[in-house]
Amino acid sequence: MMVQLSVSRELWQRLAQQCPWATFFHTPAWAETIAATFPGFRVAAIAFVDDAGSPVILPAVAQTKQRLLRTRIEYKSMEPGVYGGFLAEQPLSRARIQAIAAALCSLKKSSGRIIETPGMPLNLPEPFVAKPLTTHLIPLGRPYAEVAAGFSRGQKSNINQALHKAVQVRQAQTEQDIEQYYVLYRETLSRWGSARGQVYPIEFFMRLYGQRDQGVQFRLAEAEDTINAGIVVLAWQRTLVYWHGSSRQDYFKFYPNNVLHAKVLEWACAHGFSCYDMGPSMGLTGVERFKQSFGAQEHRMTAYRWKT
User: Fold this and answer.
1) Are 6 and 118 members of one domain?
2) Does the N terminus or the C terminus of the chain have fewer Cβ atoms within 10 A?
3) Strand (E) or helix (H) holding 290
4) CATH number at residue 206
5) Are 145 and 120 in a shared domain?
């Protein structure tokens, strides 16, 4: 097994487009946005080449960590705590995954984290240390009417109320829309307090929006001529991932978040997506119930760490 620490963007992009389980987090565009925004990170995909077929790529960003006189390279697939794992043209056999894992652990003075995707369990062997995680998935590949029939009674009522109150959903069209989304985000952070997790600067959202990539969608909810909620969904292959959301507390009774997800699901069904991934809930019961009210099912997956 040969390991290549220099991967062309063209090869990376091609494998991301061909890999059945890839998400937008696996693309060069996502890694480049992370590296451009957060100091100390650089794009650092790794390629693995053997006689079994085409190359396998681990999309990643990396940091150089200095402790006393020791230097270590720390890889994240992917940052910040989103899906990563290997890209390939077809599912990887158990034997090939083990060979790639051994090659990755052969990198001296390295460490890292890999979060597998729901579509490609890795079952990495020791010395990888596994940590269980969960996400919430809504299976699609069927008419929206069938998906909506699985909404809870309360969810259907909330969506109807939002529509009755003339909540409109549209995509962001200008940088001013992104600035308004960021205002909502700052307000949301103030409500979350210590549970807010990773904090993103406005430059990160601007860079995502500035790609003008069809896979990056800022969906905004408006009522009374005011943007009162928004979500960021990332489309790749046949998977749509809900990555980020913000809202104004004084418009909660308009149920903008409910209708945002309903409209996204309607769009996803119309465009042939097979799954809407609503993401982890960080153990927050209310968040879990909200996702379950759309028919989302809990799905277990695993994060892995290694250190050489």
Assistant:
1) yes
2) C
3) helix 285-292
4) 3.40.630.30
5) no
Structural domain of 223: 137-301
In the sheet with 56-58, reading across from the earlier edge strand, the strands are 2-4, 46-49, 56-58
Same domain, 148 and 77: no
Q: Give CA–CA dist 197/195, Å, rounded.
A: 6
Instruction: Determine, yes or no, domain membership for 306.
Output: no
Is 297 among the domain residues? yes
In a domain, 130, yes or no: no
Q: Pull the structure tokens for residue 42.
A: 């650089």
Torsion region of 269: left, alpha or beta (phi above 0 gives left; psi -120 to 50 gives alpha):
alpha
* Burial 97-121, CB ≥16 within 10 A → b, else e: bebbbebbbebeebebbbbbbbbbe
Take residue 196 and report the two structure tokens written for it: 């807010």
Give per-residue burial for 136-173: e unless 16+ CB within 10 Å, then b: bbbebeeebeebbeebeeebeebbeebeeeebebeebe
Domain count, the chain: 2
What residues does 219 pair with on adjacent strands? Answer: 171, 231
Q: What is the pTM of this model?
A: 0.96
Alpha carbons 27 and 12: distance in angstroms, whole number: 7
Give the tens place of pLDDT for each residue, 186-232: 999 998 775 567 899 999 999 999 998 989 999 999 999 999 999 99
pLDDT per position as a tens digit, 251-298: 999 999 999 999 999 999 999 999 999 999 888 899 999 999 999 999
Report the alpha-carbon angle 183-261-208, nearest 5: 50
